[in-house]
């Protein structure tokens, strides 16, 4: 009995000890009634609690990831990042090669910029996922407001809506959604972090370690940069909205299966001399929009009676014309011009007057309209053997980089605010080179200049009629300073067997018409070309 009594006493003591270990202080009575949940396995693996029953604030188990809601939000954030990256790759590729259905009549740089901004916001949200901060939410909220303004502008302004297309609209809508999502995610994580700290440590942690403060500082710096980028993009959209109100002379005409529009205009009426239809001068710009190049020279020649009629157009991406799908060669531009003229009812006969790199397009056009082209005038033209100069990889990279930052509109905004630049300056004037459309057009020319375009113009030279009258007017400055340019100008005088004249204007730059001597010689030689062309022109029966 005594032995059994002692054993029984020990069992009773053990039960009391077990009960005492299972009992909790009054400060933990809330946890004593809590139902088991998914956080308990983490707590069992953590280090023992403090004497008051709570975990240390630095314990790894004190984490917002304990909540299913936080983990689900992180999963979807990673998922959205993957979607955005795939979209980013598609947009990057479309700058160089337009996937089916993804052609943008605008530059394509704005939708790419929105996607870059989206990726940046998502990356910051994921990297600093467990360090929510009010500063982050406020700065991203500012970005959200600016993106909503951009979305409204794109949808409300018809010209911008057409240029951006469904790709641009989808990009800005997605950016708006992601900004709102990141604000929501940061707020939920902050709430979950507070809840877990209160449950596991007894109070919400109001202090941050130096590492946490640095993380918040870096995240805030990034989001402030996003605010600046979004603000500049919104301002640039405002500039584009203002520029879209500039009226144009002529019409925009759909070409290439109605994929995009090109601007074309004609000055003067169709007239006949006897049984012959008077020639129409067809102008082709050089490296700048034709309205800024030498259309004013043609208008002056029209006013003084040297020519009776002329037409001009803007190559894809220049001035009022949309960008064409990529890749786009000089021969494709010639085809677009042919289609636009046909849709406008223009039949020729033509005398082609072109300058610089535009001479490549004119020569291809001439080879494809041998009966309608009765004369060619080339003003300091680019030779096909020199296409590598505009097709160099380094130039292409610089154009691409310049296009990527073009949505920020730093130069355009600075010109409008501090230099008094007008809509005319930005659309077709001195600042036209700053627009994303123009940069995209230059990049397209660069990508195929020394390959596809060169093959097209070489073929055109072989096809060109040998009796077509040709006039060459060259820059004296260019020929003196560039021996290779002078040799290639001389070679172009052999384009046909009917060279009317070759003039080197002594003090004229590449844009020969910028000097009085250049304009005078150009007008004089054009008149001689018209006379020479009239002798080879086939009579046209007057209706």
TrEMBL record:
InterPro entries from the xrefs?
AB_hydrolase_fold, DUF2417
Q: Where is this region: Disordered?
A: 1-57
Extract the Pfam families matched here. Answer: DUF2417
The regions listed as transmembrane in this protein's record are 75-97, 109-129, 141-160, 166-184, 213-233
Composition bias (Basic and acidic residues) maps to: 32-41
Keywords from the UniProt entry: Membrane, Transmembrane, Transmembrane helix
Cell membrane among the record's keywords?
A: no
Q: Where is the composition biased (Low complexity)?
A: 20-30
Indicate whether Membrane appears among the record's keywords: yes
Task: State the protein's name.
Answer: Mitochondrial integral membrane protein-like protein
Q: What is the lineage of its organism?
A: Eukaryota, Fungi, Dikarya, Ascomycota, Pezizomycotina
